[in-house]
Amino acid sequence: VWGKRMILLLSLSFRNTPQKIREYFAFGNEDKKRLLKSLCSEELIDEAVVLITCNRTEIYVSSGNDKSTSSIINIILEKCEDIIGINIDNIRDYLLFYTGKSAVSHLYKVSAGLDSMLVGEDQILGQVKDAIEFARECDTAHLYLNTLFRDAVTEAKKIKTETMISKSGVSTATLALRAAKDVLNSFSGKNILIIGASGKIGDIVLKNALSYDFEQIYVTRRRHNIDMSPNAMDRVSIIEYNDRYDYIKNADVIVSATSGPHFTLTKEHIQENIVPGSKKVFIDLAVPCDIDERVSNLDNIYYYNMDDMKKFADENNEKKKISIEKANAMTDEGVEKFLKWALFQENLKVFSDATENLEKEMARIGEKKTLEHLFYKIRDNGSLEALQSIIDVLSI
Prior knowledge:
Blueprint: E1 6-13, H1 19-22, H2 29-40, E2 47-52, E3 56-63, H3 69-84, E4 96-99, H4 100-111, H5 123-137, H6 143-162, H7 172-184, E5 191-195, H8 200-211, E6 216-220, H9 230-233, E7 236-239, E8 253-256, H10 267-272, E9 280-284, E10 301-304, H11 306-318, H12 321-346, H13 348-365, H14 367-381, H15 384-394
Parallel strand pairs: 5-6, 5-8, 6-7, 8-9, 9-10
Antiparallel strand pairs: 1-3, 1-4, 2-3
Helix pairs in contact: 2-3, 4-6, 4-12, 5-6, 6-12, 7-8, 7-11, 13-14
């Protein structure tokens, strides 16, 4: 907290919240817009941004009143309840709240991929940019949150450039295909069906699939959204979404990554369209879930969802420990820089008044005497730490 300004954050993520709970908060654009507008209609809240990914939902607000933390938290929860339509009291244990420096630090770490399931993954940075851009379009992000998100994105880019945190980074989509390969041993002669290849995650799955030796890649995808080499197109077949079940029989790996609220694949329809006992891997990379998890009860069927991906991320993250330490140090520097800007911004009038008073004193007793009086005033009225800080600045 600086001055009277406060930034507060409500967070649900894979770290503390099961997927079934996160699904309640996977707001679509209309609900996000409604939530942002509703939050900023409250007197205590000046600005708001909502960040939603497959692994987290986070609501950032800025307030000019640092004494109303509990009131603001209640407002956020009430607004979420209005949209979700359930009593949030039952899931309060899964909600994390950050204020002031901890909220700022959290966004910096999220933007750099330090708080991701896969440390250093790049997709989150684009999602942070999209979140602040959406809030701008809704006219709910102004001076403080605009500056915070801009600086967090800038620092994240610097971290990715100056450390190895993203050099060996892999996406959730990459891990998913690795998990499938562990089951099937090889993709040679195998086929994959990707439902939702037009979306961000689906597009990454498709690009990864093209780097493997799948014999055939079936995708449900908008025809105008294709940018692949002719060689790649020989292996890619674009199918209608409504025909997806017809291709399950020939597919060895089935990945679904849509943003829809309903199942793309149900157990009963899957059972009708596969050869009993045939080995298949179903991978659900959507929140809410795309694939009916009861499919895991079928013989020789392997099913993974976003919660399962965390287990596959541990080994990848272990290799990045040195880079993570350096990235965390850079994040701390970025956070301090933002907090100093915010403190300065909140006290512009103090500096303006001080400048005016110094000018009057200089006119009355001269520049040297005025500066001497100022330094004595700092010595006599400031703390030892504050005095040392000023001496350090003057010594540069």
